[in-house]
Design a protein that fits this description.
The structure is a homodimer of 310-residue chains. With 310 residues, the first copy, chain A, is an alpha/beta fold. The first copy, chain A, has helices at residues 31-48, 88-96, 105-116, 177-180, 182-195, 213-221, 225-249, 265-278, 296-309, and strands at residues 5-11, 17-24, 58-61, 65-66, 71-73, 85-86, 100-103, 125-130, 134-140, 143-144, 253-257, 288-291. Chain A has nine helices and twelve strands. In chain A, a hairpin with a 5-residue loop joins strand 1 and strand 2 (17-24). At the A-B interface, helix 7 of A face helix 7 of B.
């Protein structure tokens, strides 16, 4: 479930998408209306495709999803859940007669990686989602770490710069997300262009619109050294943060997922160098950092579906 | 198992200590000799107390204990395991015929708190051991977080000061342990006395021996403001680190354990203030910070015994 669209898919145990439909998330003014429409869409899809009795359960990936309670809690980007707690899993079960579980997008991505992707066969790993923000899904001993309140794993909001850090949308400052998200990279680009007026860069030719992380990637691909240094800076901060994550749960792998992960080696190289330089010796050389093997939209859908197998 | 002493106890399911003996850890030159002596001591104790057939298993708390493998790996303070990996659990099983599991001291303390102490009934909590160093035992979803290699939970070595941090015994700098351990508090005391020559403090009267964290506590108890500020500084650093731990696993409680935890409210107050000021809003007011309810030596023994019930 995104702020705009709710794709609905039937997925089999091997991760094949069999059929699908969708809703516009924002077309409804209350959680009840949305749940009613979602239930109807699911029931219609089951009927139209002769799937009665063949669906094991429903898994949902939602913003601010509380896995313990099956609720969406005060999700800023969902019009009918901005200020309230919506027990969406229970409502969908009532409309469809099927068990329903939910979790947030990053946890869904982690389940997707474990069952169908780069973490197949792993019991201890962390997925870091690098998009507009930075999210995380943590798996320890084969289980999602959701915490006592269902909201564990906000690694985009660990503090990486403790003095004069960048202001974060969460109201605090110095959060990982302000440096290592797509918007964080764009912010670094603007800072670097101001900070090093003597350095040439094709990023200086962009005008009439804000620089994006995609611009930085494209410039790096052409050998632009300032652009490469922007990724070096970003990767170093990620690597430093990863050293602390490793000291926490000693994962077999940290998997990078989401738009910014497409920067590939421009990010991986400085991350690995920083981990190698800084990680506590007992962990040295043990944790892999790898890119997701699932396509963006697919991973969230596959991950959400994985909830239904549990 | 400590570097000097190995206390051995028979403990029942309610946490009562029934009988005991001990070994001197350092009296042996190889792991084999130590395991032989330990096996003999256990067998003798069982025979002397008519406990044949009544022992369910053996649990050990050891330095650098790898829970996944049952090994002690390069433990600096164990003379016969300084540079080698000793498969001690298997060796003890061979000598006694009893199943044997081990983990490090902080994890043993976490199990002790869960089964007999302050974390009774909790599924998500973190024990922070504040002694000569800082250790941690993390429980998520009712299970110890041990990681893919058995060495997760080195929270004494997350980096809390990223620039010009204090040098740490691990070879890096800025680790939590360099500020929040008993030795870290003593270090802060020396720094504060140098840094604020104008401030009066009874800590200035200590001479001919190094200041200890106990001195700082005793001065604080007498109302010494510099001593109280030393704990404020320490608690603030712990609180900042705890905000990141909470973002990771959203624990119901963080439990302070070990010698320095006896400073009680001198530490708790600044910790709670810092968490309240700095934690991500979704976690606000949710995580308790409490003192261990187990006596020092007891908790490690009870926790180790808890391994045998699993």
């Amino acid at each position: 479930m995104g702020g705009i669209n709710t794709p609905i898919r039937v997925i089999d145990a091997r991760g094949n998408i069999l059929c699908g439909s969708h809703l516009f998330t924002g077309d409804y003014s209350t959680g009840e209306e949305y749940a009613e429409a979602l239930g109807n869409a699911i029931n219609e899809m089951i009927e139209k495709n002769d799937l009665q009795g063949k669906i094991k359960g429903i898994g949902m990936g939602t913003p601010n999803g509380n896995m313990n309670e099956g609720t969406i809690e005060k999700a800023a980007n969902i019009p009918w859940a901005k200020t309230v707690v919506v027990p969406i899993a229970r409502m969908v079960t009532e409309k469809t007669g099927l068990p329903c579980r939910l979790t947030n997008d990053a946890n869904a991505a982690a389940l997707g990686e474990m069952i169908y992707g780069a973490a197949k066969g792993m019991k201890d790993f962390i997925v870091i989602t690098l998009g507009t923000g930075v999210g995380s899904g943590i798996v320890s001993n084969g289980q999602l770490v959701v915490g006592h309140d269902g909201f564990a794993g906000e690694l985009g909001h660990v503090t990486v710069v403790r003095h004069n850090g960048r202001l974060c949308g969460c109201g605090r400052s110095g959060c990982l997300e302000t440096y290592a998200s797509a918007t964080g990279v764009a912010r670094t680009a603007r800072e670097f262009l101001d900070l090093f007026p003597e350095r040439e860069s094709e990023l200086r030719t962009i005008s009439f619109r804000p620089i994006t992380s995609k611009d930085v990637f494209e410039a790096a691909e052409k050998g632009d050294e300032l652009a490469i240094d922007i990724f070096n800076f970003t990767g170093k901060i990620l690597g430093t943060a990863f050293c602390d994550f490793i000291a926490f749960s000693s994962p077999q792998a940290i998997i990078l997922f989401g738009g910014l992960a497409q920067a590939g080696n421009y990010l991986l190289k400085p991350i690995l160098e920083e981990i190698d330089r800084h990680v506590l010796s007992v962990y040295k050389g043990k944790t892999k950092v790898i890119l997701s093997q699932l396509k963006g939209a697919e991973a969230a859908l596959l991950g959400a579906s994985a909830l239904a197998w549990e």
